[in-house]
Amino acid sequence: MAAQSSCVASLYTVGVLEAVILRSFGPEGGQVLFTRDTGQAMLSRSGTRILTALQLEHPLARMVVECVWKHSTATGDGSKTFILLLASLLRLIHAAASKEPNVSHSYNSTKAAEAATARHLADKLLAFALKELDELIATGVVPYGGRISWEDFTATAQSPSLANNLCVQKLLRSFFHTRFGYTHCDFISHLACELLSYWKFKNELPSFSLQFVSDNFPALHTPVSGFPVCASRLIDGQVIHRDFATPPLKTDHQPVKAVVLTRSLQPTLLNTGDVLEVGCGGRMMEERSIVHFSAWMERSLQGIIANLQTLGVCVLLSAVKQSAAVLALATQAEMCVVECVSEDELSLFVRLSGTIPIWDCSMIEPEHVVTLTFCRPIQLGGHRYKNTPQRITVKPCSLVICAPGEGQTEQYACALQDAVRMLLRTWEPMHAAVTTTSKRTLQSHKSSSLHTDNLTDRTTYRSSAIQPIHKCVLEPGCVISAGGSFELLLHYALLQHGHSCSVSHDLNIDTSVSQLLANALLSVPQKIYAHSPKGDKSSKDSELDLGLESVSCKYQLLLAVLQCVRSLLKVDTVLPTHIALHTQSSRPASTSWEDTEDEAED
Amino acid sequence: MALNGDEEDFEWEPPTEAEMKVIQARRERQDKISKLMGDYLLKGYKMLGECCEVCGTILLQDRQQKNYCVSCQELDSDIDKDNPALNPQAALSQVRERQLASQSPAPSHTPELNESPSSSQGNMSVPQPRPEHCEGAAAGGRTPLPPPAVPSPSRLVLQEAEEAVLTKLRWATNQLQSSASLEASIQLCSLITSCANSLRSLKEVSQ
Prior knowledge:
The complex is a heterodimer. Chain A is an alpha+beta fold. Chain A has 2 domains: 3-147 and 428-601, GROEL, domain 1 (Orthogonal Bundle), CATH 1.10.560; 238-395, GroEL (3-Layer(bba) Sandwich), CATH 3.50.7.10. Chain A is 47% helix and 11% strand. Chain A has helices at 6-22, 47-53, 59-75, 79-99, 110-140, 168-180, 182-198, 206-215, 217-220, 290-310, 324-332, 343-353, 406-427, 485-504, 508-531, 539-546, 551-570, 593-600, and strands at residues 32-35, 41-44, 55-56, 146-147, 221-225, 233-236, 238-240, 256-261, 315-318, 336-338, 370-372, 376-380, 383-388, 397-403, 478-481, 548-550. Chain A starts with 5 loop residues before the first helix and ends with a helix. By secondary structure, chain B is mainly alpha-helical. Chain B contains 6 helices and 3 strands. Chain B has helices at 17-43, 70-78, 88-103, 137-142, 155-178, 182-206; strands at 46-51, 58-61, 67-68. Chain A binds chain B through residues 1, 4, 12-13, 15-20, 22, 32, 50, 54-59, 61, 99-101, 103, 106-110, 113, 574, 576, and chain B through 1, 3, 5-6, 8-10, 12, 30-31, 34-35, 37-39, 41-42, 44-53, 56-58. Strand 3 of chain A pairs parallel with strand 1 (46-51) of chain B. Chain B: This is Zinc ribbon domain containing 2.
């Protein structure tokens, strides 16, 4: 049945995906139970997780899931709403296209005419959204919401006269409510607020500290399974997820000095296959053997350790495994060594302390040494780690996430990371045009030699297809009450815009496009309220219950959906190949959008 | 609504009532298919990139690498579930219903031949062994005939029951002769078997 047009094929596919996530959608949505062949089970309501767990070989379905995943990586939320909006837009476009096929060109069949009309409509929709949507939102939606200031983390920090009770914690609470339900959302949102208030950099934009936390989140948290969720807490200092390789410091001499090693102290002069010629080099000696060679090596090692001792170093943080000789000498010299520290943690450590890791072991200078307030082992769950803060202006703190099982700790960690991304999107200033294409540097935290002056490097996110926005219309921190209010308000704003367009000049195109978008938006509140059977709840109650959501995240969601619609409708034919073009399970961040399109396009 | 490339000025007319109904039915069917497919996907089936040759629905593949078309294999045979002509379970429950109706003090009327029995739950009060799951046509033949609840059934009731069963047997035989589908033939054969069993039990009871 290759005669199915792409519009119809996408409609069927997205309809199926919609049926998959529909029952989990909304505040009353259910959870999906995931089971593995090993018997591990996990409950989740996250749309991204559900969609990425499905086994899909259909290229259009995979394209859609790819879009959802990318959107979710950028904004942290909204994957189910994405699918719902996508489905309703495709339905309306299909209906509109079958009503009035574009007869200005001659096509071979109704199908081709419909497909062309649909494509044209999708292009118009996207163009309209890029041009006018932000203004419409600013005038029609934002006045009904509010603005959270970055300083208002909890409700207690505000003056009690504020009726709206807007604060970051409330926003986070409603976010976690969609992920975890009522049980733990209060606790986790409180914990998240604490973490963020610790990591607030003075005199910096909120987006800066949020970006920092988001980039370094793997190094900033420790998952511990086997404890109840309420045991999660913040602890002082950075946790290095490795135990001491040598016996830890016996006495707490404060302050503790440490160095960061990126290579083995004992240089590997000999590799497999090398031939060592043991000779005398001109001097006549009776015996020269490998024993002398290793003795010489040890002496040079002793020299290095003695150098470190004179600098007062007690702790060696090594990125690689050190040899037994190094460990023995370090123990003798009463130094403790931590080996195989992960790159993330080392780079965070280096960044926070402002030190330079040692590269050449023969040249160890005082600037390589960093002073720590304390350095001690800490037992978290079944593992022993090392806890060490630095003496800098921002006191570092690390998050310990506890949950009954490993799957749950991962879930909570993911949810927290997504929450930070969502907040980042909320507070990101949507600036005016940038001359160069500034892409998001995903690898910025991987570089091991980040100095303090690099902390001012701002990373901004831009979708590669968005045209530059000329004025800063949407202020950072705009929120609106959750539960479909954004969609309803935008629906009315679009209808009004359509009316005013048709009255002022006959641009029927704009009217029909804004009408289509307005009707599509209604599907979201429809689905939210179709689930909840309680019709007798007073409006005041429901407003308090549903919480807040971020306006800029919703705006990004709309744009992403419209782009996805356009990409889906651009597909002419789907060609089956018998070679696997890319593996199913890997979703690398560097997969460019063009790859998937090339696979599916004519 | 044929549109050729030559027709430049195509007048769109709103669809008629009949067409609207067709469109509506098609949409509902599509929604049903989507819902079923969604459920299967959540169960672990794989969505393939191919479509069914018969109906054009996207194919699913289960863990055993077997392809499955939701609309052909499930939706179309769904409505046949309650049809007593094809399903012996439905036939049996219809017979029981008729027995119940004739045994009650209120004047009972013979139920229609194609009245679909609501389900076996209606016969909860009557203590009869009943298969809980519809294991297919073959199982229907193995169902033991429910013993009559009334201690002394009257001749009239037995005769009526016998007549009904014979009618069904006759009808099934006719259907079998003209049947082309393997599935339907199997089901009809088992219906005949169960009718024969019912007749035997009725004869035993009457003696």
